[in-house]
């Protein structure tokens, strides 16, 4: 309760601002919406001119009311997307630039199997990342690269521990997932 009769400074209302009339284009825009007309501009700095709108849709353009609906099934006979591509390697086949350089120092013959990879994280953050892509490696070549072979065995162990359906591990052509991961460049 205030005893002095004065309003504390923090509770005072600011002085009302003088009313400034809106620029002509705003008034024209407001009146044109009410009359079913849509203003158009030749250039961004140009004066508005009216065009008769047959229908102003939810996207605020003169077009039919076409609104996308939520779907859980594909429009065509294509297979539904259940799960996107993602690495299923336990981090053993994806390499940072530093990991790539370290592997190259130990296994220079692995260079032809290391490819740049571009996933969403790399694209958005402009990061370099690499993938050991062994889709066409021969058993002889894989045996000649012990450091890479060790990574392949770690992938196998990781996948055996998982309860998910796994891509085939038969043969030396091990890849990240059945359909790859990200986009190889």
Architecture blueprint of SSEs:
Elements lengths: L23 H11 L2 E5 L6 E5 L41 E2 L1 H10 L7 E5 L1 H6 L4 E3 L6 H5 L2 H16 L21 E2 L1
Antiparallel strand pairs: 1-2, 3-5, 4-5, 4-6
Structure explained in plain terms:
The chain is an alpha+beta fold and 185 residues long. The protein has 2 domains: 22-65, no CATH class; 94-184, no CATH class. Helices cover 26% and strands 12% of the residues. The protein has 5 helices and 6 strands; from the N terminus they run αβββαβαβααβ. It has helices spanning 24-34, 97-106, 120-125, 139-143, 146-161, and strands spanning 37-41, 48-52, 94-95, 114-118, 130-132, 183-184. The strands form 2 sheets. It has a 4-stranded antiparallel sheet with strand order 3-5-4-6. A two-stranded antiparallel sheet has the order 1-2. A hairpin with a 6-residue loop joins strand 1 (37-41) and strand 2 (48-52). The protein is elongated and about 75 Å long. The N and C termini lie far apart (73 Å). Residues 22-29, 170-174 and 176-185 have low confidence and may be disordered.
In short:
The chain is α+β, with helices and mostly antiparallel strands.
In the predicted model, the low-confidence regions spanning at least 5 consecutive residues are: 22-29, 170-174, 176-185
What is the molecular shape?
elongated
Alpha-beta content class: alpha+beta
Helix content: 25-40%
What's the story with the biggest beta sheet? 4 strands, antiparallel
Q: Compute the number of structural domains.
A: 2
What sequence of helices (H) and strands (E) makes up the elements? HEEEHEHEHHE
Distance between the termini: 73 Å
- The protein's oligomeric status is single chain
Overall pLDDT: 75
Strand order of the largest sheet: 3-5-4-6
Total DSSP helices: 5
Rounded Rg: 32 Å
Strand residue content:
5-15%
Give the total of beta strands.
6
